[in-house]
Amino acid sequence: MFPSVSRTLMIRPEDVKPSRDDLTVVGTFNPGAAQLEDEVVLLVRIAERLREQRDGYCGLPRWEPEHGIVVDWITENEIDWIDPRVIRNKKDGLVRLTFTSHLRVARSKDGRTVDRWCEERFLPESEWEEYGVEDPRITQIGDTFYISYVAVSRHGAATALASTKDFESFVRHGVIFCPENKDVVLFPERIDGQYVALHRPNTATPFGTPEMWIARSPDLVHWGSHSPLLGGSSAWEGDRVGGGTPPIRTERGWLAFYHGSASCHGSASCHGSERSVTAGKVGAYSAGALLLDLTDPSRVVHRSRQAIFGPETDFERNGFVPNVVFPTGIVERDDMLHVYYGAADTCTAVAEMSRSDVLAALG
Amino acid sequence: MFPSVSRTLMIRPEDVKPSRDDLTVVGTFNPGAAQLEDEVVLLVRIAERLREQRDGYCGLPRWEPEHGIVVDWITENEIDWIDPRVIRNKKDGLVRLTFTSHLRVARSKDGRTVDRWCEERFLPESEWEEYGVEDPRITQIGDTFYISYVAVSRHGAATALASTKDFESFVRHGVIFCPENKDVVLFPERIDGQYVALHRPNTATPFGTPEMWIARSPDLVHWGSHSPLLGGSSAWEGDRVGGGTPPIRTERGWLAFYHGSASCHGSASCHGSERSVTAGKVGAYSAGALLLDLTDPSRVVHRSRQAIFGPETDFERNGFVPNVVFPTGIVERDDMLHVYYGAADTCTAVAEMSRSDVLAALG
Question: Chain A residue with minimal CA distance to B179?
Answer without folding.
Answer: A202
